[in-house]
Amino acid sequence: MKKENCLIIIIMALIFSSCSTILNEKIEPSTLEDNVRIIKEKYPDLDSLKVDILDKLIYFNKGRDAYISELESIMEDSEFSLKSFIVDEEKFNEQKDNLFNYFEAQEISFGELLAEIDTIHAINDRFDNEAQDLYQKIDAYCSEKQKEIEASEKKAEEIKARLNEMVDLKIISIRETEYDYSDVIEVKIQMTNKTSKPIEAISFNMELTDKLGNKLATLGCKSNDRFVNSDVGYWIYDRWDNSEIYNSLKNTRLSHITTKSEISKINHGGELISAYDDLLIINFEYETPEKLDGYCPYLDDTDELKIELDKLKKRKEIEIQESTPIMNKYKDITLKLINIPNIFD
Questions:
Q1: Which of 30, 192, 296, 308 is most buried as measured by Cβ atoms within 10 A of its Cβ?
Q2: Helix axes 48-62, 89-106, angle to 10 degrees
Q3: Are residues 170 and 270 in the same domain?
Q4: In angstroms, how far is CA 186 from the centroid of its own chain?
């Protein structure tokens, strides 16, 4: 353990002990809840991490059902049940005994536990200060990437507008029929070329909406059939491989729908025009935060900035681990409460 971290723990322990004897109390199952209540009353400004740890210890001490109920209450209105993800009663009680036996054997007090949380905060703050130059570089990279993405999206919209002026698309029939002994929905679309050059191939989406404004289906269509003036394409949707579209369009009349088309790619007289070339589809809409923390959704694992950030985080994790044996024990045991179901069973 580094000297400065030892010093932090000693100083915090001395501060706590000089303020009140309640923080000198040992962590024991029989007095845990009463002591935590007194600590909260005496120190109403405890930070959220300290309050969370103290609350978790109470519910941990009460047993598996109480612990699960507390975790689920944090998830607010979620209908998701955690019961299958927490170990059974026997294993839960075993881990609970392990933690409180550790507290007893090491004579761990509330002050010592809370002092380690202060140590974690201190190390985090120091590393944050050390990393400010790196954080600024990452923010600059991410901001520039965001500008590139927005420029690409603007260019894509301009190209799509141009493409949609080149060809008119119109559904001329929707019918239920049979194809290779299977029930299918056949959609017939007329494609009209409004340019002076032939259309060698085309890719487009067509969204179908009913009279109430409900979206029925989005048809992703491609055709490699060359046409100079006009062409009619047929797209088939069966009840098995395309069940969602089949069910949506079954019993649908052409007069009951409206359509919205978006052409994304055309081979125009041998020239390939695409709205999505060099376009990063996922736009995370990054904005510089008030406090830089190294977050950037556009950084790859192989980027130098990401590698440098990971190294810094690793150093921080190692220092925290070396400086906080009580919290290490707590985290190690609470992780063992998680039961990961075997999805192959």
A1: 296
A2: 120
A3: yes
A4: 39
Question: Smallest Cα–Cα separation from 156: which of 239, 289, 261, 273?
Answer: 273
- Class of residue 77 by CB neighbours under 10 A (exposed 0-12, middle 13-18, buried 19+): exposed
Q: Residues 144, 145, 151, CA angle at the centre, nearest 5°?
A: 90
Residue 136 domain-assigned (yes or no): no
Tell me: the pLDDT tens digits for 141-197? Answer: 999 999 999 998 898 889 999 999 999 999 999 999 988 888 999 999 999 999 999
Give the distance from CA 303 to its chain's centroid. 21
**Host domain of residue 84:** 3-131+304-335
The pLDDT confidence band at residue 345, using thresholds 50, 70 and 90, is very low
CATH number for position 255: 2.60.40
CB < 8 Å & 24+ apart, contacts of 272-275:
273/159, 273/162, 273/163, 274/159, 275/156, 275/157, 275/159, 275/160, 275/163
| Burial environment of residue 164 by CB neighbours within 10 A (0 to 12, 13 to 18, 19 or more) | middle
Select from 49, 65, 41, 61 the least CA-distant residue to 103. 61
CB 316, CB 134: distance < 8 Å:
no
| Listed residue (169, 32, 28) closest to 103, CA to CA | 28
Indicate yes or no: pTM above 0.85. Answer: no
207 part of a folded domain: yes
